[in-house]
Amino acid sequence: MFAIQYLFTQYVPYKGVAVCSPELNGYVAFKMWRFVFLLLFLTSAFTQPALAQEEEHEGEQLDYGKPKIDMAPFNLALLERGRVRGKVTMYLVLVIEKKGEIEFVRARMPQLRADFNTALSVLARQRFSVSRPVNPDVVKAYLTPFADRRLGAGMVSIYVKQALVAPS
Predict the structure, then answer these.
(1) Nearest partner of 121 among 95, 147, 87, judged by Cα
(2) Which of 18, 99, 124, 145 is 20 to 30 A away from residue 53, measured at CA?
(3) What is the pLDDT of residues 30-84, one digit of tens each?
(4) pTM score above 0.85
(5) Hey, what CATH class is 68-167 in?
(6) Residue ranges covered by each domain of the chain
(7) CB 104 within 8 A of CB 151
(8) How far is CA 167 from CA 76, 77, 86, 125, in A?
(9) Pairing mode of beta strands 83-96, 12-14
(10) Do the beta carbons of residue 120 and residue 77 sit within 8 Å?
(11) Contact (Cβ atoms closer than 8 angstroms) between residue 151 and residue 113
């Protein structure tokens, strides 16, 4: 508050003469507030079209890039010699290679998830261990024939987003 009072008590040029009067201070305050409101109005006027453009692109599918589907995590028991030695949690991402086929893939997600769950259970018994990390290339190579059989050859690419091995 002191800074504003100090601003209004300064000498202000008025008709070529530096004067300090209470009437002039009100005039300066009016001009200052008018400038602030004009600045805020112009700022909001020019930012609204930019926000509207961003909202337009949210609903439509863009032409660049390939669509992807993040699958729900797979939780598997890690068995060694018939005993549970740990738990494997695996996050997979499917990248649709053929344009416009995302609805086709989404319609077959329950069957594909069941196929992957069965395949990953077998793979966990054969290749996974608590003492070493999961090799994503092995998982991709093992699951690709299941996806090709269910969806068609070359429809999706499979990527391991994250694989966690927790000993029990």
Answers:
(1) 87
(2) 99
(3) 776 677 666 666 666 666 555 444 444 433 454 578 999 999 999 999 988 889 9
(4) no
(5) alpha beta
(6) 2-59, 68-167
(7) yes
(8) 12, 10, 4, 14
(9) unpaired
(10) no
(11) no
